[in-house]
Amino acid sequence: MTTSTTTERVDVLIVGAGISGIGAARYLTTEHPAKSFTIVEGRAAAGGTWDLFRYPGIRSDSDLHTFGYEFKPWTDKQAIADAPRILDYLHETIDENGLTDHIRYQHRVVSAAWSSEDARWLVEIDRTDTGERTRISAGWIFCGSGYYDYDEGFTPEFEGRERFQGQIVHPQHWPEDLDYAGKRVVVIGSGATAVTLLPAMADDAEHVTMLQRTPTYIIPLPREDAIANALKKILGDKRGYALTRQKNVAQQRLLFELCQRFPSVARRMIRKINASQLPEGYPVDTHFNPPYNPWDQRLCVVPDSDLFRTLRKGKASIVTDRIASFTETGILLESGAELEADIIVTATGLNIKIIGGIDLTVDGRPVSMPDTVVYRGMMLSGVPNFALAIGYTNASWTLKIGLLCEYFCKLLTYLDAHGYDSVWAVADPAMPTRPLLDFGAGYVQRALETLPKQGPEAPWVMSMSYYTDRRLLRGDVADEHLHFSGVRDRAGSVVV
Q1: 384: cis peptide before it, omega within 30°?
Q2: Contact indicator for 433, 455 with CB cutoff of 8 Å
Q3: Which of 151, 156, 202, 157 is nearest to 173 (CA)?
Q4: Is the domain defined by 2-150+351-490 classed in CATH 3.30.470.20?
Q5: pLDDT in tens, 240-295
Q6: Which alpha helices (H) appear in 46-202, and where do they start and end?
Q7: Where in the chain are the domains?
Q8: How many CB atoms lie within 10 A of CB 304?
Q9: What is the pTM of this model?
Q10: In whole angstroms, what is the distance from residue 451 CA to residue 374 CA?
Q11: Which CATH fold topology does 155-348 show?
C-alpha cells in the first residue's frame, strides 16, 4: 500500500453510494450548490444493498412509494419492487442530479481523525483498485454506509458442516453460476431473505424446504398498488406519488401501532390471513405462530402471496425444528428427521457494522461507539461535524433518511449564517441510556454492545416514528444540547 502525498479538500465527504449516500448528495446539490462534496464507495458500483445482493427474487419488503425518495416519484407499477427496478431508480437519481462525477468507486474509508484546531476531518482511504492510500480533508462526514457488514454475512456454527458433500451458500455471497435446477434445496432461516428465496427457486429446483427454528409473521400484499397507480394516472406522477406516500406512511404507522397496542388482536388477524392462504388442514400454528408479538421483529411481506402459492402447489415446504448437525447428504434435525439436500442456503442473517467500521478519533482520542449517545438520530455525542444515516426498522428506511438529510442541510445553513464551522452534541453524563435499537431481531441483539446508546427522551431518542421525527427534524435547528465553534472562538473571541 503506497500513500499519496497530496490531500484533497472538500466541504462534505459522503461515505457510501447506496440509497442514503445518493439521497444526501442530491439534497446537497439543491440546498447547498456552492459546497463541494465527494462520495466514496468501497465497492465498484453504486446501489449499496441493491447491487450487493444477487440472490434469486431479491426485492424490497417495503413499498417503493415510501422507500423511494420524497423528491423523486416512483413511477413503476410495482410497489413491492425487485432489485433491478430499484437499481434503475437509483441510477436515474444519480444521472438526473449530476452525481456521477462526484462518486469515487473502490475507495474504502479506513479512518477519520478530527482536529478541533483545524475544524476538519483528515480521512484515510484505501483504493482497492490501485493499492494506494489517499487522504481527503473534509469539513463534514456524512456516513451513509447503513449498518450492515458488507464483507461478511452471519452464519452460526453448525456441527458437522464440513461433512456435507453438497454446496453451502450464503445469500450475501450468491454465486452467479449456481445451478439449482432439479436440485434439492434447504434454505435455513425464516426472515425476508428466506421467504423470498422459497418461491423464487421453487419452479426450477426439485424441491425447496425452508427450515426455520422460529416462525416469522408473514403478510401478503399486492405487488402492484392499485390505488397508487390510479392516483398517478389521474393526478400525474408527482401529485399521485405524494398522495400515495402520505397514505402508505399512515398505513404503516397504523399497522405498527395496532400490533404494539393490541398484540393479541394483531396475532389473530395475521393468523387468519395466513390460514386463508394455506391448504385445508395445514399446520398453521406449527409454522406460522411466532413466540413473540407482532412487530417485536420486522414483519415479512410476500408480494401477491407468492410464498403461499408455492406452498399450495407443493413445490416447497416449511419445516420448524432445530438442527442437530449437518450430515454428508443433508441436515439431521433434533426431532430425528433428516432433510436431504444438494444445496444448503444459510439465510441466517447479517452482521452489523456501524459506520462501516471506520476508526474515528477526535483530537487524538479514539471514539468508543458504546460511550456515545445518538442526537436526533444522526449525530454522535462528542463527535463534531459527523452525521450518520440510520433508517427505520419498523417502516421504510428512506423515510427517515430524507428527514435526516433535510436537517443536515439546515444545520449547514445555520453554521454558515452564524459564522461557525463546527458543531457537536453534548450529552449529560448522568443521563440514563439504553440500547440504540429496541428491536428483537437477532442481528440487532448480537451487536447491541458495540452500538451507540440512546437516551430517555428527545432529542436523544432513536425515534422510529416518522411523524415524531418530522416534528423534531423540521423544527428548530439548534437547542441547548448543541455546542458551536468558529474561527473567532478559537482565537479567544466569543461569537454572539
Answers
A1: no
A2: yes
A3: 151
A4: no
A5: 999 999 999 999 999 999 999 999 999 999 999 999 999 999 999 999 999 999 98
A6: 49-52, 64-67, 83-96, 192-202
A7: 2-150+351-490, 155-348
A8: 14
A9: 0.94
A10: 10
A11: FAD/NAD(P)-binding domain (3.50.50)
